[in-house]
Amino acid sequence: MFNALVVDKDEDSGKTHAAVQQIGVDDLPHGEVLVAVEYSTVNYKDGLCIGPGGGLVRNYPHVPGIDFAGTVEESSDARYKPGDKVVLTGWRVGEAHWGGYAQKARVLADWLVPLPEGLDARQAMAVGTAGLTAMLSVLALEDHGLAPGHGPVLVTGAAGGVGSVATAILASLGHEVAAVTGRPETADYLQDLGATQIVARDELTEVTKKPLESELWAGCVDAVAGAMLGRVLKQMKYGTSVAAVGLAGGAAIDGALITPFILRGVNLLGIDSVMQPYDNRVRAWQRIAKDLPMDKLETMVQPATLSDLPQLGRDILKGQVKGRVVVDVNA
C-alpha cells in the first residue's frame, strides 16, 4: 500500500473532495510501465482536477497530477527497464488517466521521456509542464528567427510557472526580457530571474482601435491572451513572432486586427505541450538541461507534500501561486 491524493465525487450533491489515502498497485490503471514517483508539481489543470474537475476528469475516484518524475520499477516495454529515471508531462495523464499525486504510477511507455542528463527528478518537476511549455515556446521563436540582439522579448504572466521559466531561459540565452505582471510585489523576483524591464499589466490591457502601434518587441511568450494579446500583436516588430501558450485573460483575442499579420508579417505560434511528439519533447528537455540556469530555477521553487495539495489547488485557481511548486510525494 502507498499514499495517493484521491479525489472523489458525491453523486447526490455533485461536490468533490480530495484527501490523502492508501491505495495499492492493483488499484492503478492499465499501463506498461510502473514508476516509483519521487516528485510532482502543481499546474492550473491540477487545480481544476483537485477541485471541481473543470470538465477534465472523466471518472471518480481519481488521482490527479499531470506531471511526475521518478524511477522505473517494472516495465513490459523494451525501451525502459527497472532503475531508469523518467519524466512524464501531458497526454491527459492526471485528467483522463490517473497521474502523479501518488507514490506509484502506471502509464503507457509512449508517454514517458528519459530524464535528461544534468537534471534530477526534483529539478525536472521544478520545470514540469510549465517549464516544458516555456522551452517549447523559446524553440518555436528561435525556429522563426529570434536571436539575441534583435530587441526585447516580452513575457506576459511572467510571475506564473510558464512565465518564470521563460524569463530565466531567455535571459540566460542573452535576450533582453520585458516581464509583464499585475503583481508589483513580484518585480524583484522577476529581476532576479533576469528580467531587464518590468511592464505593468495595466499598460497592455486597454483595447485600442489602432491597426498598428510602435514596434517594440522582438518576440513574445504570451500566457494571457485576451485584450493583452490583441494589444501586443500591434506592437510586434516586423517579421517577429508571438508564442501563445495560455488564456488566463480569456480565450478570445480582444481588439485584434489582421493588420499585424499582413502589414508586418507577424506570426502567431500556437504552443501545445500535451500531445507533443516524442522527438520534440526530447529536444526541449535537452535544451532545458543546457539553457535553464539551475540557480534561477531554485529561486522559483515552493516545496509541498501530498497533504498540501487541496489548498494549493484552490490557490492556483485564484492566481495566488508564484513560480513553481515541487511536490515531494514521499514526504
From TrEMBL:
Ranges for the Enoyl reductase (ER) domain? 11-327
- Could you tell me which InterPro entries the record lists for this protein? Acrylyl-CoA_reductase_AcuI (IPR014188), ADH-like_C (IPR013149), ADH-like_N (IPR013154), ER (IPR020843), GroES-like_sf (IPR011032), NAD(P)-bd_dom_sf (IPR036291), Zn-ADH-like_protein (IPR051397)
Q: Name one Pfam family in it.
A: ADH_zinc_N
Q: Which GO terms describe its molecular function?
A: acryloyl-CoA reductase (NADPH) activity
Q: Cross-referenced PANTHER family, in alphabetical order?
A: ACRYLYL-COA REDUCTASE ACUI-RELATED (PTHR43677:SF1), SHORT-CHAIN DEHYDROGENASE/REDUCTASE (PTHR43677)
- State the name under which the record lists this protein: Oxidoreductase
